[in-house]
Request: fold
Amino acid sequence: MVGMDWTDWTDTFLLALELSRVEVATEFSLEQVQKLEPIWRKIYSKNFNIRSKIRQQLQILRDHERILFLDN
Reply:
């Protein structure tokens, strides 16, 4: 069962990962993804919880079986 809904944020998030060469088919860390924070700050300038949103989007991608968490 899918826990969270896929939104436009998720589409943008996935696109930013792909454009930044953080490939979904390879291992990457939360720290690597958080380095992309400036991209989302520009797109979503009124969102003041970007880091929380990043973690949420990773959970959505996991729930939709687009990524697999290897470690906490």
Q: What stands out?
A: The longest helix spans residues 50-63. The radius of gyration is 12 Å.
